[in-house]
Each structure stands twice: as structure tokens, then as C-alpha cells.
Design brief:
By secondary structure, this protein is mainly α. The protein has six helices and two strands; from the N terminus they run ααααββαα. The chain is elongated.
């Protein structure tokens, strides 16, 4: 902001900023909960988080998944075992070094994540459709800046972080396995 801007000296965040984001987050939590309710008979929330990690980052080892969930590897192993049994993820040998394993989504796992994402997008679209078009346009830079400040990376840019080696032309492109998980520690 420039010094000629009347809001240049206003502190951020002000209470009204916090309240507006808190109210918006309540809406988004509700949208998220509704989209996840459609798959609660197949996966738990922590299991779905694993599916999202694999969908966004490509094949991962167990340690990376555990770190992404902020749980210990044994807890991640139990969650992943259930997802393997459900046919939603696959454990595979690293073709370059058979001592290492990789976790990746199966087609059913991709479909489940896509279904929840599509439902969430449709619900958000319904809310945005009720807003004046100019406010929707004004919302874009603020929400992008908010996500950036939180460290969130848009899906179209995850390749830049090294989670995959190619820009995601088809959404399923990814690099090979991350060879940090030995067979005995899966």
C-alpha cells in the first residue's frame, strides 16, 4: 500500500478480518464435511488425507506420508494397510532398488479423491454463484494471498516443489518412488 492509501497504516489483522475469515472457514469446513460424508463408509478422515497426499504429490514412501499426517510411522502403516486392503493404494517395489517401497493411488483411489473434490467444487460454486460477480473477482487476490501466506500451493504448481518431475498434464503424472522406505519399515 502507498502512503496515500487511507488503509496503509491500518493493522492487519484487525478483529473484523479475523471474524470474516473465521465465518468463511466455518462455511468451508461445512462444505468439506459434506463432501467427506459421501465416502465415510469407505475411508476415515486420516485415510482420506493419505489419499490426498498421494494424489497431490505422487508416489510416496511411508515416512513422507507419516510426516504429511504428523503421525508416527506405525500409525501411518496401519492406515495404509487398510487402504491397501480396500484397493485404494498400492505398495510397490522401487524398480531401481528393491529394498525400497513406494505407496501410490490405484485407479479406485484416484476416483474416490476426484469424486470428493468434484463435490466440494460444486458446493463452492453454488455459494459463489450467490455472490455479485464483482465481489467474486475481488475475492480472488485475497484468497490467493491468504493461501500463499499459509504455505498452500495450488495443485497446478505442485510439480515445482519436486513432488513430481513433470507438470501435471494428465492429473496422474508423477515421478518414481521416493526411495527412503526400506522394506522392513513399511
Amino acid at each position: 500500500m502507498t502512503s496515500s492509501d487511507p488503509g496503509a497504516d491500518a493493522a492487519c489483522p484487525r478483529p473484523e478480518h479475523i471474524e470474516a475469515v473465521r465465518l468463511a472457514s466455518r462455511v468451508l469446513v461445512g462444505v468439506t464435511a459434506q463432501s467427506l460424508a459421501t465416502v465415510e463408509d469407505r475411508v476415515t478422515l486420516p485415510q482420506f488425507r493419505i489419499l490426498v497426499i498421494l494424489a497431490s504429490r505422487g508416489p510416496q514412501n511411508l515416512r513422507s506420508v507419516a510426516e504429511g499426517l504428523a503421525v508416527n510411522p506405525s500409525a501411518a502403516t496401519r492406515l495404509c494397510d487398510k487402504l491397501v486392503a480396500a484397493g485404494l493404494i498400492h505398495r510397490a517395489d522401487d524398480p531401481a532398488d528393491r529394498r525400497y517401497l513406494s505407496l501410490q493411488l490405484t485407479p479406485d483411489g484416484h476416483q474416490l479423491v476426484q469424486s470428493v473434490t468434484d463435490q466440494r467444487s460444486a458446493a463452492i460454486a453454488r455459494v459463489l454463484a450467490k455472490m455479485p460477480p464483482q465481489l467474486c473477482d475481488d475475492l480472488l487476490p485475497a484468497l490467493r494471498a491468504f493461501a500463499d501466506a499459509a504455505g498452500e500451493v495450488p495443485e497446478r504448481q505442485i510439480w515445482a516443489l519436486g513432488w513430481t518431475t513433470e507438470q501435471p498434464e494428465p492429473p496422474t503424472s508423477s515421478s518414481g518412488p521416493d526411495p527412503q522406505l526400506t522394506r522392513g519399515n513399511h
